[in-house]
Structure formats: structure tokens, C-alpha cells
């Protein structure tokens, strides 16, 4: 007698989903879960159960959609680990828009003189004083498979005003 083997999530798939729901703050994780088309419940526990049920069902019925969701989750987790929580995003953008942006940034990057040494990237005091303040500047661009990474840097101008009482000075 032969029977069908029930579909279950692999250990890595389970860890990815639980990382999304447990490691990310709830106010960040919940909209991401909804944007992926996964069900949400009342609170983390109920949401975890609904997500797991939904993914098991999806894995058995539509493997391509399941793989797409898992790829998005893994990309988000990778972004959070590498770049921190400020890099968390879950957007779907038209491919023609992404291609246009990639073409423009690639063109701009290729026109620039890329530094070959770290010393070329660090500004000395004179360069720092003469630099344009508070305007992001492209400092690195790379593309691999379906991901593009743009790194911007800017010189910030900060004015510190502090009142120091005379009693805090060493002479008093």
C-alpha cells in the first residue's frame, strides 16, 4: 500500500519564517507578512500558526509562488543582517523602472573615478571643509543577480551649542 507523504516545511524554511516573525519588531514584520500575501492573526502566535498553515498549503499547490515568497523572506532577512533594520523594505517595483534606475546609476558609476585604496575614500581636514554639505554622493554601486546595492555618503554639518557653567571648568 502506498500513501502520499504529507507536505511539510524544511528546517531552513521554518527558520526563515520564524526569523521574520520573531526577530523583526512586530510593527515592521506584520506589514511585510501582509505584503507577501500571507495571512495574519491576532498577535505573533496566531500569525505564526496561520503563516505556517498557509505556506504548507501553498507548497503543495503552487510551488513557484511558494519559492518566490521564501526568496523574498530570505532577501529581507539578509538585508536586515547586513544593513540593519533601516534597510528593511518590501516593495514590488515595475521591472522597467528598475532597469532604468540600474542603467542610470551604472552610467553615473562608470563616469566616476573609483578609488582603488581606502585612503582615497577618506577625506582629510581640507577636503572635509571644502566638501558640499548634506548632499548624498554615490560611493559604491554593484549589481548581482536580481539585487542592486547603492551606497551613498554625505558630509553632515553639525553645530553643537553647549552652555558650560564656570564651575565645571578646572580653574574654579
UniProtKB/TrEMBL annotation:
State the superkingdom.
Bacteria
What is this protein's record name?
Uncharacterized protein
Amino acid at each position: 500500500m502506498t500513501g502520499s507523504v504529507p507536505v511539510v516545511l524544511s528546517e531552513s524554511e521554518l527558520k526563515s519564517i520564524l526569523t521574520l516573525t520573531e526577530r523583526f519588531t512586530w510593527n515592521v514584520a506584520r506589514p511585510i507578512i501582509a505584503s507577501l500575501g500571507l495571512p495574519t492573526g491576532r498577535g505573533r502566535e496566531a500569525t505564526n500558526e496561520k503563516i505556517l498553515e498557509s505556506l504548507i498549503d501553498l507548497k503543495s499547490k503552487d510551488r513557484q509562488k511558494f519559492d518566490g515568497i521564501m526568496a523574498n523572506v530570505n532577501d529581507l532577512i539578509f538585508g536586515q543582517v547586513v544593513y540593519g533594520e533601516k534597510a528593511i523594505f518590501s516593495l514590488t517595483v515595475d521591472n522597467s523602472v528598475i532597469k532604468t534606475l540600474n542603467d542610470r546609476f551604472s552610467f553615473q558609476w562608470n563616469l566616476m573615478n573609483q578609488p582603488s585604496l581606502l585612503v582615497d575614500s577618506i577625506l582629510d581636514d581640507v577636503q572635509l571643509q571644502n566638501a558640499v554639505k548634506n548632499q548624498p554622493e554615490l560611493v559604491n554601486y554593484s549589481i548581482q543577480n536580481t539585487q542592486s546595492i547603492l551606497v551613498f555618503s554625505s558630509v553632515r554639518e553639525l553645530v553643537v551649542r553647549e552652555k558650560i557653567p564656570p564651575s565645571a571648568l578646572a580653574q574654579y
